[in-house]
Amino acid sequence: MSKLGNLGARLHRGEVGYDFVRNRKIWYGISILITITAILGLTVRGLNMGIEFQGGAVFTTPKTSVSVAQAETYAQDSSGHEAVVQKLGTGGLRIQVAGIDTSKADHIKAELAKDLKVDAEKINADLVGPSWGEQIANKAWQGLAIFMVLVVIYLAIAFEWRMAIAALVALIHDITITVGVYALVGFEVTNGTVIGLLTILGYSLYDTVVVFDSLKESTKDITKQTRWTYGEIANRSINATLIRSINTTAVALMPVAGLLFIGGGVLGAGTLNDISLSLFVGLAAGAYSSIFIATPIVADLKEREPQMKALKKRVLAKRAQATVEEELVEAGTAGGPLDDEPEDVAPAVVGQRNQPAARNRGRGRPSGKRR
Where is the Protein export membrane protein SecD/SecF C-terminal domain (predicted)? Predict the structure, then answer.
C-alpha cells in the first residue's frame, strides 16, 4: 500500500506518468471496436425486455416439489408464451410470462394450480398491461434524455462546451457498451436495469469531472508559459488523478461483483442480476471512458484553437533551441578548445609563485642581514 501511495504521489507531482493523450488513437480504436460489437449484439439478438416494458404476468406460488424445467413446460402450455421460472428461497416458484393479455391471467393461474398441485388461492399474480409497459419504457428514455441535456448544460457553464461534448460522448459510450452487454448476455431488462444505468452515469461523470477540474485549474494561464502544450497538461491531469480513479473504481466494483457473481450466480438470486450487471459493466466502462476517452477528446478539440496551435509552436521552438544549445555545450566539452583561442598559448600558472633570489643577497654574512 505504501508503494501504491508513493506511486500516486509521484504521478501527482509529474515525476512519472503514462502518455494517455499521445496514444489516444489506440484508445479510440478500442472503444470503437467495443461499441461496434455492442451495436451488433443489439441488432442481432436484441434486448430481453421484462414484463414492466412489454406487459405480462408474474405468478408466485407456494412451496412445491415441481422442478423449474417442468414448471416452465406447464407455464408455456397454459399461456402459449415462453415463460421464465425461478426457484425461491421459500421453496416456491416465480413464474414470469411476458406478452400475454391480462384477461387470460385467471385461466393461466387455474391451469398452473392444477399442474403444480397447489391451491389456486395461494398463487399470487402481478399483472402489467402492454400499454402500461410501453408507457414505462417511454418515461425511462425521456428521463435519460433529460438527464443528458442537463449534464451538458451544467458542464458547459461550469467548465466549457468542449468538456461538455467530451462528457456526453463518454456517457453515450458507457450506455452503448452496457446495453450491448445486456443483449449479448441475454439478461432481462427491468426497472432495476434502468436504475442501474442512471447510477453508473452519475459515477462516470464523477470521475470525468474530477479530471476536468484538475485540467481547468492547471490551464488558467497556459498561454503565458512556453513549457507545456495543452495536450501535455491534459495528460498530467489524468496522471495526477489516476490512482484516485483506480482506487474508487476498485472499491465500488467489489460489492457489485459480490451481488452479480455470488448473489446471482452462486446463491441463485436471479432478481439481483438485472441491476448488478448494469452497475458492474457501467462502472468499469465509466472508469475507462473518464481516463481514456473524455480528456483526450478535450485535448483534441482544444488543440485545434489558434491560440493553442501558436502555443504548441512556441513550446516546440523553445525545446528545439534548448536542444541545440545542449549539443553545442556537449561538443565544446568533449572536442577541445572553444572559440578562436590559439592552441600555443601557455596555460596560466595557478598557485604560489616563487620569487627569484636577489643577486649577492646576504653574501658572507651568516645571518643573511645587511648592514
Answer: 111-303
